[in-house]
Amino acid sequence: MYGNDFPAPDDASGGGLLGEVEAAEAALREAAARARRFGAPTPDADLDAYFADVIEADQKIEPRDWMPEAYRRTLIRQIAQHAHSEIIGMQPEGNWISRAPSLKRKAILLAKVQDEAGHGLYLYAAAETLGISRDELVDLLLSGRQKYSSIFNYPTLTWADVGVIGWLVDGAAIVNQVPLCRCSYGPYARAMIRVCKEESFHQRQGYEILHVLAHGTAEQKAMAQDAVDRWWYPSLAMFGPPDGDSTHSAQSMAWKIKRFSNDELRQRFVDMCVQQAEVLGLTLPDEDLRWNDERGAYDYTQPDYDELMQVIKGNGPCNRQRMEHRRRAHTDGAWVREAAAAYAAKREQQKEKVAA
Questions:
Q1: Can you quote a single GO CC term (predicted)?
Q2: pLDDT at position 250, please?
Q3: How far apart (Å, rounded) are the C-alpha atoms in residues 110 and 98?
Q4: Looking at the whole model, is its pTM more than 0.85?
Q5: pLDDT score, position 245
Q6: Interhelix angle for 69-88 vs 319-332, to 10°?
Q7: CA–CA dist 329, 334 (Å, integer)
């Protein structure tokens, strides 16, 4: 019994989100196999019009293609925030590696945290194709000029929190990220294929933890319910502010960087979670949660967007702790980066000697 095995009411096929990832991967391969119908732009071409035609035709913008500066900046901001979130997101669960209840749980959690580090590296690499270096991106994070997901500024108080992060936090991430597999920027779309496949397993791991707790002792079920109560609304806030208050959403959708609005994705997440919570035997903490026949979706209580803004501004429960830990890790790891750079330089010198 796992999270993605329970489709939303409008997903009668049961293919779910992983099916969408596979379809997006197939579409990427098909696009790579065919040439653009426009060919390369001529020297005197209207580049803005050419760019618009590529986007409209649902083809990919690649690193060597001309792109508007605003498009490039938007991608750097979004991909960097995504990469930073993967790296910072290692902390809440990493806190439980040494306290996992069994060797099996410890090994699984260790592998999951390692996966998140890998996701960060994929995404930093995708951002670098836009002409910004990884060192610059890290500096922007450490100096507070770039952000990461607000959800990672909440504490993990019990082992059940690890399960809820897998089910709700990774579940919200999957709902948000699966459409990015069809992003108009090729390197980002291709990175998201692998990220989403691995995140699906992360969600299943968290769901399985909660299933065991919810069907265990009364104390274990209470611990699981408490974790759901604390993480539900911060998870809803992961999709960002309402559409009317979103600064970047409309333009990102016009450029096909994202395919659905914040509110559309949030609704899909709620519809998905209701059925999953029923199987778990846990209750989502919303007295107004009910099916709406007219809309074909669940009505629900919105998260506290004022709290979201405060967390984004650095006033969440763990903002300072997360950034202090990240800065300390970066400083402590300086010798590793220096050794790697020295080794790479030595290898390059050896190649030059052989070539000479």
A1: cytosol
A2: 87
A3: 9
A4: yes
A5: 85
A6: 90
A7: 9
CATH number of the domain located at residue range(s) 16-303 in this protein: 1.20.1260.10
Q: Which two tokens stand for residue 128?
A: 């670098």
> What are the mean pLDDT values of the chain's consecutive 10-residue runs (356 residues total)?
41 58 80 64 82 90 94 96 96 95 95 95 96 96 94 96 96 94 94 92 94 97 98 96 86 93 96 95 97 96 95 94 96 95 94 85
Pick from 149, 152, 158, 83: which is nearest to 117 by CA? 83
- HEC string of the chain equals CCHHHCCCCCCCCCCHHHHHHHHHHHHHHHHHHCCCCCCCCCCCCCHHHHHHHHHHCCCCECCCCCCCHHHHHHHHHHHHHHHHHHHHCHHHHHCCHHHCCCHHHHHHHHHHHHHHHHHHHHHHHHHHCCCCCHHHHHHHHHCCCCCCCHHHHCCCCCHHHHHHHHHHHHHHHHHHHHHHHHCCEHHHHHHHHHHHHHHHHHHHHHHHHHHHHHCCCHHHHHHHHHHHHHHHHHHHHCCCCCHHHCCCHHHHHHCCCCCCCHHHHHHHHHHHHHHHHHHHCCCCCCCCCEEECCCCEEECCCCCHHHHHHHHHHHCCCHHHHHHHHHHHHHHCHHHHHHHHHHHHHHHHHHHHHHC
**For position 39, what pLDDT does the model report?**
64
